[in-house]
Each structure stands twice: as structure tokens, then as C-alpha cells.
Amino acid sequence: MAVREQALEVPAELGEWISDLDVATVEDRAPGHPVVDEPDHATRLVLRVAPGRGGELVVVGPRTRASYHVSQPGLWCARATLRPGRAARLLGCPAGQLVDRILPLGVFRPPVSPAESFAHLLTHALPTATTPRETLLRDAVTLLSTGTEGVAGVARRLGVSERHLRTVFADDVGLSPKHFARIERLRTVLADSPRRPLAELAATLGFSDQSHLSGEFRRFMGVSPAAFRRGELPPATGCSARSVTVAPAGDPVRR
Questions:
Q1: Which helix (H) or strand (E) holds 112?
Q2: Which of 58, 153, 178, 224 has the most CB atoms lying inside 10 A of its own CB?
Q3: Domain named HTH araC/xylS-type: which ranges (predicted)?
Q4: Distance of CA 49 to CAs 8, 115, 176, 243, Å?
């Protein structure tokens, strides 16, 4: 399988809430080759449409481990990436309840036509005012993403305690500040040229050495960097456009 992605311009009025918009289409140019869902600290609203089966609107929470699957050719997804902290406010539940889950939007809002609901959220349902807590989170995300300061240093620069910063991240992002920074660094490794020497990458990105980088990569991706570059991936699972993970009994999503 191959995935063709097309980036779309985020309307200016949605820029405070949405960082990226794109459309991904699964093409059958490489049969049997799995689609890789990389670890990601973001939450997304995704409209998924499969040929002959209609569509569904789902919330895809932060992903703490890579997954590998074979998707149906012709499946396409419109994806809106929410900025850190926005998902909890939009959906009315702590972001920690979204981690490693895919949930129908109907869990949080009355079910309507998927296309209508997606369009409505992008044009009408997003609150406009920014709170001081959201400003704090935005600044912390910016500092942590540079990789030059640890959690303690970021907290000091922002004038808050480490405990408060961890609470904000747990409730509004779903991850600890340290976990957020680790995933951000891993995504930088994945985005870098596959021909760049791992030792050079490790030094540039602040790993203690190449072994440290390789260990982190294996923990998140399930294989070593060298194996990943060679295309030696873990076994892929099936993926259906209507396959979602609902909240298990006894663990409801609080509104």
C-alpha cells in the first residue's frame, strides 16, 4: 500500500485551533506494504470514507506507539490536527482519556451526518477565546519542541511549578511533558533523511549516543532504526474504515 497525502491551507479563522489540514488517500501501488501510523502527541478529527461503505467521523487521540496496518485501497481521510490543549476544550473530556484510542465523534456530540458534522466543527463549533492556561501550554510546547531544555527548565522559564506543568499536560494533551518531548524528538528522527548517519542524528538531537537513540526508536516503533530504514517492519494488522475503539465498560469518557 501507498498513501498519497495532500496538505490543505488552514483558514485563518481556524489557525488558533487547527495546526494542519490534509487529505490522505490509500493507493494500491505497493500491494502488501503496510501503512505506518507513527507515534504522535496530537489529537485529530478524521473523516474517513471507504469505497461503497460511506463515511464516519472519529477522534484519533495521541498515539504512544507506532502501528502497522494494511488499509483498503481507495480509503481516504480528511484530517484536522488540533493544536495542543484544544481537544480537551472542544470535546469536553480530559485528553488523557483519548490516548491510544479512536472514538466516534458521537461519543462527545450528538451524531449527525459525518460530512456535515466535520464541516460544522471546522466552521462553527470551535470556541474563539484563548485562556491563560492555553497560553501557558502553547509556550511550554514551543520550548519543549526545541529540545534544548528539560521539563524543570521549561517550568522555571514559565514561572510555574513542575507539578502544575505536568497537570496541565496530563489534562490538556494526555501525556506528561517528558513523554511529549520524547515523541516530538522521535518524530524529528523519522522526518530526517534516512541516509543521515545515526550517530550524527543522535548528537544533533541531544541523545547521549547512538545506542540511546536506537533504544528510544525501538521502544516507540517496535524495530531498530536500521531495520526500519530497510523496510523490515513488524507484522501488519488489518484496518477497516469502520473499525473504532470505543470506551470499555467501566471506563466511560467523561463529558
A1: none
A2: 58
A3: 151-231
A4: 18, 10, 33, 12
Report d(CA 69, CA 236) in Å as an integer: 4
Query: Rounded to a whole number, what is the distance in angstroms from the first to the last CA of the chain?
Result: 37
Q: How far apart are CA 143 and CA 177, in angstroms?
A: 11
Domain 132-229, CATH class in plain words: mainly alpha
Give the pLDDT of residue 35: 84
Q: What is the mean pLDDT of each run of 10 residues along the chain (255 residues)?
A: 83 86 79 81 91 84 93 84 89 92 85 63 65 93 90 97 97 96 95 85 92 97 94 79 39 38
Gap between the Cα atoms of 219 and 214, Å rounded: 9
Cell triple for 52 = 461503497
Instruction: Let me know: does 86 contact 98? Beta carbons within 8 Å.
Output: no
